[in-house]
Amino acid sequence: MNAASKFAPAFTARSLVASIFAMLASAILINYVHVVLVASSPGEHALVIPGLWVFLAMVGLGAIFFTLFKVRILSRPELLCVLYAILISGPMMTQGFWHRIVAISSTIPRTGDFAKMDAYSDNFWPSGANLLADKGLQPSESVFLSGNSRFETVDHSAGEQQEVLVLENEASGEVSSIRFTLPLKEEKSPGVMPGTPYLSSVLLRPSEFQGDSRYFVRMYADDSDDFREILYSRIIRKPSVIHPQGFQREGLYGFEAPRNATESVTLEIGLEGPGVLYVADPQLQSVLAMEQVFSGRTEISESDYAALPEHHRHGLVVRPDNLFSLSGLRYLVSGYIPWDAWWRPILAWGGFLAIILLGTLSIAVIMRRKWIDSERFSLPLTRIPTLLIGSADEPKNRFLSGIWRNSTMWLGFSAGLIWCLLKMASFYNSAVPDPSISVPLGSYFGPEWGETWNITFTVMAVFVSLAVFIELNILFSFLVGFFLFRLLYWYGYVSGMDASPGFPYAQEQQVGAYLAYALLILWFSRTYFREVLKEAVSSKPPKRDEIFSYRTALILLVAVFAASAVWANWVGISILGVLAFMVFLLTIGFVAMRIRAECGIPFGYFTPNNAALFILLLGGIGAFGPGLVVFTFTASFFITVAGFFLIPGAQLEILELGRRYGIRPKHILYTCLLGILGGIIIGGWSFLSTSYAFGGDSLRFNWAFEDKPWYFSNLNQELAQAGTAMVGDEAQQSGIAPSTYGYLYGAIGATILTVLRQLFAGFWFHPLGFILGSTHLMGSGAGSLWGSILAAWLLRLIVVKLGGAETVRTKLLPFFAGVFIASVLALLLNAIYAAYLRSQGVEIIFSDLL
Question: Which InterPro entries would you find in this protein's record (predicted)?
Answer without folding.
Answer: DUF6784, DUF6785
